[in-house]
Write a structure and sequence with these properties.
single chain, alpha/beta, Purple Acid Phosphatase, chain A, domain 2, eight-stranded mixed sheet, six-stranded mixed sheet, 38% helix, globular
């Protein structure tokens, strides 16, 4: 039987922010996204995004380091009007307002006919995937995330956490139940345009387990694409509409909307570049994707064993990771009144050099050992969890 083609549009991180609450609440999708982008969504059979936060009018933030993200219930209107059918909620910020934020978000999405997956009421009822049938073709959408402050418990909601053995087993089983399997993986290093060896290994294993497409969200930056055997891997989709920071670097002010066309012969994957505007995002008329394709070629050469490509890729990945250096060293330094005074005197680059000077080589080796060694890593997490309970 010949089935009709299925067109899927996938957007990256999306969440209303104070700067555009009014437009989201009014459902003004043309002002938020422009004519061409709205038309691209309207042309699809299935539209998916990652909702990077919760929808609640309450104020029940969890204890955490980092931003707590939520949006008023009324802002769901523009997301519905854009035609979003499904939303991934296994991510960094969906549990930021705890159980009440979870319940409010489920209610709001249910009331607006938006399906969701990637989280659940407790560790025994996480909804990792959904099935969508279009013209006889069965498509499964699967969402998994790295652990942040979002783990489910026996009596508290949470997300579908990545466990390689379990996830790959589930994907293998799900592939027998569908024609096409898409994995939404929420993880990676924020602000980097280069994927890690860990990420590549995980993506390859999920593809080997049956995933036709694997997409990484969370990094807020465009990464690379890879055609691996018969699967399509996208390492870093970038933001869709996520104005958490008022100012960002040019490379963080872009994203990809992925268009998938499913036919009886297979599928095609086409990335569309979008550009951040003051309050939303619009279609890039020039489709300036040279950097994306250049990184992808270097990535492919790395996979094929090119030593120079591997060195270049790891060098650039390391440079991007250094954006976290100051925060990383400050965290390990602990409370230090003298350091607090120094921070007032020094520029960011001077502070970075000053912090590095405070860490002798043996000290850095000790930290690396705790991070690298699985036993010590587990010990460290247990110690800190116990100390937090005591405090």
């Amino acid at each position: 039987m010949i089935m009709k083609n299925t067109k899927i549009i996938i957007a990256g991180d999306l969440m209303p922010m104070p700067c555009n609450y009014d437009l989201f609440s009014a459902g003004d999708i043309k002002a938020l996204f422009g004519e061409e982008l709205c038309g691209l969504f309207a042309s699809a059979d299935l539209r998916i995004c990652n909702l990077e936060g919760c929808f609640t009018d309450g104020d029940t933030p969890i204890e955490k380091i980092g931003p707590v993200i939520k949006a008023p219930v009324s802002t769901i209107r523009a997301i519905k009007d854009l035609g979003i059918n499904y939303a991934t909620l296994g991510n960094t910020h969906s549990m930021d307002n705890g159980k009440q934020g979870y319940l409010d978000t489920c209610r709001v999405l249910d009331e607006n006919g938006i399906n969701y997956f990637g989280w659940g009421d407790n560790c025994s009822s996480v909804k990792a995937y959904v099935k969508y049938i279009d013209g006889g073709r069965t498509i499964i959408l699967y969402n998994v995330t790295e652990q942040f402050e979002n783990a489910p418990g026996e009596d508290c909601p949470g997300v579908n956490l990545y466990d390689e053995y379990r996830v790959c087993r589930e994907l293998t089983e799900l592939k027998t139940e569908c024609d096409f399997l898409i994995v939404f993986y929420h993880g990676g290093i924020e602000g980097t345009h280069y994927n890690s060896e860990t990420m590549r290994r995980r993506f390859h294993r999920m593809a080997d387990s049956g995933a036709d497409v694997v997409i990484s969200q969370h990094t807020h930056a465009i990464g690379e694409e890879e055609h691996y055997n018969s699967s399509y891997l996208l390492y870093g989709q970038g933001n869709f509409c996520f104005h958490f920071r008022s100012e960002v670097t040019p490379l963080l002010a872009e994203g990809l909307v992925l268009e998938l066309e499913l036919t009886d012969e297979g599928f095609t994957a086409k990335p569309h570049r979008i550009i951040r505007t003051e309050k939303g995002c619009v279609y890039d008329e020039k489709q300036e994707l040279e950097g994306f394709y250049a990184r992808s070629r270097t990535h492919d050469a790395l996979i094929n064993g090119d030593r120079a490509a591997k060195d270049e890729f790891e060098l650039q990945f390391g440079k991007d990771c250094e954006n976290w250096l100051t925060q990383f060293l400050l965290t390990f330094r602990g409370v230090d009144p003298e350091l607090a005074e120094k921070r007032k005197e020094l520029s960011p680059s001077e502070l970075k050099d000053y912090l590095i000077s405070l860490y002798p080589r043996p000290y850095l080796l000790s930290i690396l050992t705790f991070l690298r060694n699985e036993e010590l890593n587990e010990i460290g997490k247990t110690i800190l969890s116990n100390l937090l309970k005591e405090k």
